[in-house]
Design goal:
transcription regulation; ATP binding; two-stranded antiparallel ribbon; 9 helices; about 50% helix; Helicase, Ruva Protein, domain 3; sequence-specific DNA binding; Arc Repressor Mutant, subunit A; single chain; about 210 residues; mainly alpha; nucleotide-binding
Length: about 210
């Protein structure tokens, strides 16, 4: 297998050449399959697996990092605005709530497709629930149940964040440390949950008061 030689010896022979060339290229491999299991079953070459499995980065599925949904949706909206020359301003709070309550079996690609579909139905302004597909709009009873559960979690989460902010005099960096989350995650949750932070007490990541 010629790829193994490139990975192991960093040499290759260009088509039509009479000698070998060297390369310092770095190979990035991505998959949605379990290569450990595939290697054990014999459906993926073991020698290739150990050559590409040098630095391993696992990206959790979207259902396990739903705090990224608002940022991803914003990115897709900006892209489709450019491509379709529209001026969609964002998601309504109801539409975002439905997106946050979805399980996302199709991962980020499913979110992208839903935003693209919404652009067909939404010429301008905000994307509302009327622009979302049936599996998200509440016509499925299970979606209602998931949204009610999500709202209950949001109430508890908002309460915990408010308590941490108050105990730390609304220093968001200190509150993030107390909650055990990254500061950017806390900032997004504050915005998403509509938690009010006194302007006089807001501090950036360096602990300097904003004016």
């Amino acid at each position: 297998m010629r790829l193994l030689r490139v990975l192991q010896e960093r040499t290759y022979e260009p088509l039509g050449a009479t000698g070998s060339e060297t390369t310092d290229a770095r190979i990035i491999v991505a998959t949605n399959k379990n290569l450990d299991e595939a290697t054990r079953r014999g459906t993926f070459r073991e020698d290739l697996y150990y050559r590409v499995n040098v630095v391993r980065i696992e990206l959790p599925p979207l259902r396990r990092r739903k705090e990224d949904i608002p940022l991803l949706a914003e990115q897709f909206i900006a892209r489709f605005n450019r491509l379709q020359r529209k001026s969609v301003t964002g998601l309504s709070s109801e539409a975002l709530s439905l997106l946050m309550g979805h399980d996302w079996p199709g991962n980020i690609r499913e979110l992208e497709n839903i935003i693209e579909r919404a652009f067909i139905l939404c010429p301008e302004g905000q994307v509302g629930i009327e622009h979302l597909p049936a599996e998200l709009t509440g016509r499925d009873a299970s979606v209602h149940s998931k949204n009610r559960l999500r709202l209950s979690r949001d109430v508890l989460e908002a309460q915990a964040i408010r308590e941490a902010l108050e105990k730390n005099r609304f220093n968001r960096l200190a509150a993030a440390r107390a909650l055990g989350v990254h500061k950017s995650t806390l900032f997004r949750k504050i915005d998403r949950l509509g938690i009010k932070v006194p302007k006089a007490d807001r501090k950036d990541s360096r602990g300097i008061k904003s004016h």
